[in-house]
Design brief:
Elements: E1 11-12, E2 20-24, E3 27-31, H1 39-52, H2 57-64, H3 66-69, E4 76-82, E5 85-96, E6 99-107, H4 116-130, E7 135-140, H5 145-153, E8 157-158, E9 174-179
Parallel strand pairs: 6-7
Antiparallel strand pairs: 1-5, 2-3, 3-4, 4-5, 5-6, 7-9, 8-9
Length: 180
């Protein structure tokens, strides 16, 4: 890839502290640690949200302070690294009783269609199981057809919104869960 293709949705990583968790060819999935730089997590998510929707108050709260809104509460953020740039991310947010919300999943537009999202999602599900999670849930939107299809393909199933913890996003009109 040429550097001009990376655009604003990728962030160059200098001296990242995150330990390597998994790798496939030219990508690595690493966990964002407390004290780590959450800039890429924010930028990747702002890109897709602003492209299709409007940033909501809950988005701003989470993206501007992932350390306090996710990590310090026992959550995890995984980031995909490729050639020194962060090209994808996802968060696991603990909701209690072994249930986690899968949230803020994003892949850089220039890297979509290469299986990165699937690898990241499969890695995240495996990590949730290793944490002892009993279930995952998510909220999405029907216009994000590729994302909804990806979630279905790894075992998430559609459920009524009432079956899940409260969603804080007006854009959510697709609700899914997975038992682990």
């Amino acid at each position: 890839m040429k550097s001009r293709e990376w655009k604003m949705t990728m962030v160059k990583v200098e001296g990242d502290r995150g330990a390597e968790k998994a790798s496939w060819g030219a990508i690595e999935i690493r966990e964002l640690e407390i004290g780590g730089d959450g800039t890429a997590f924010r930028m990747l998510n702002e890109e897709w949200i602003e492209r299709h929707f409007t940033l909501e108050a809950k988005d701003r709260e989470t993206l501007n302070d992932p350390e306090n809104t996710i990590l310090s509460k026992g959550g995890r953020i995984f980031q995909v690294h490729s050639e020194g740039a962060i090209v994808g991310c996802v968060a696991l947010i603990p909701m209690g009783n072994g249930v986690f919300e899968l949230s803020k999943m994003a892949v850089s537009p220039s890297m979509r269609g290469q299986g990165i999202g699937r690898r990241l999602l499969e890695h995240t599900i495996a990590e949730a199981r290793a944490l002892g999670a009993t279930g995952l849930f998510l909220g999405s939107n029907s216009i994000l057809k590729d994302a909804v299809h990806l979630y279905q393909s790894v075992g998430f199933r559609h459920v009524p919104a009432e079956k899940l913890p409260a969603m804080h996003y007006a854009r959510a009109n697709v609700f899914m869960q997975m038992d682990l």
